[in-house]
Amino acid sequence: MAGSSPSSASSQGSHSVEQRVISAEAANAAVLAAVVRAGELGIRINVAVTDSGGTLAAFLRMPGAFLHSVDIAIDKAYTAAGFGFATSQWAGILKGDEALRLGMPQRARNVVFGGGLPLREGGALIGGIGVSGGSAEQDEDCARAAIAALGLAGD
Fold first, then answer.
1. Which has the closest alpha carbon to 105: 117, 116, 91?
2. Which residue range forms the structural domain that includes residue 26?
3. Torsion angles phi and psi, residue 83, rounded to 5
4. Number of structural domains, the chain?
5. 106-147: per-residue pLDDT in tens?
6. Can you spell out the DSSP letters for 6-44?
7. CA distance 141 to 130
8. What is the Cα–Cα distance from 17 to 15, expressed in whole angstroms?
9. Beta strands of 34-97 (E only): which ranges?
10. Residue 84 within a domain
11. Taking the model in full, what pTM does it have?
């Protein structure tokens, strides 16, 4: 910044911002609600909730759920929290841009198919939820059931 010195930056106030995150109680309630919905659908899932920074806050694996889906569920939650939109939206985003279509799916932990949703409270991103074990549509259905159980608005 022209005309700015290091000392003028510190005199302008704080050098930090507040970040809202999902509570432990809400994260646990979300994974339980997703599992209840999976039971209604007759599927076995892994479900993960991350905080708004993408750090795992809660996880639950139904007995018999696919082992490889453990990391997929966690990465769906991470992707949804990291970008702030449903992982199912990636198909449309990637469709119009060849470089993105080739590059984004190669990024570690980035999931580009359905089942991950951001968690928002009052418009603020507080985390992400990821479900894996059913079809992409069933996974998203379970994630939406968790959001509804928390009384949060859907994506």
1. 91
2. 20-150
3. -105, -20
4. 1
5. 888 999 899 999 999 999 999 999 999 999 999 999 999 999
6. HHHHHHT--S--------HHHHHHHHHHHHHHHHHHT--
7. 11
8. 7
9. 46-51, 56-61
10. yes
11. 0.88
Judge contact between 96 and 62, C-beta under 8 A: no
Strands across the sheet containing 56-61: 56-61, 46-51, 124-132, 116-121
Q: Indicate whether 93 belongs to any domain.
A: yes
Joined tokens for residue 30: 């979300």
DSSP state of 153: P
- The single-letter code of the amino acid at 1 is M
| Tens of pLDDT, residues 38-96 | 999 999 999 999 999 999 999 999 999 999 999 999 999 999 999 999 999 988 988 98
Terminus-to-terminus CA distance in the chain, angstroms? 37
Q: Are 114 and 140 in contact (CB under 8 A)?
A: yes
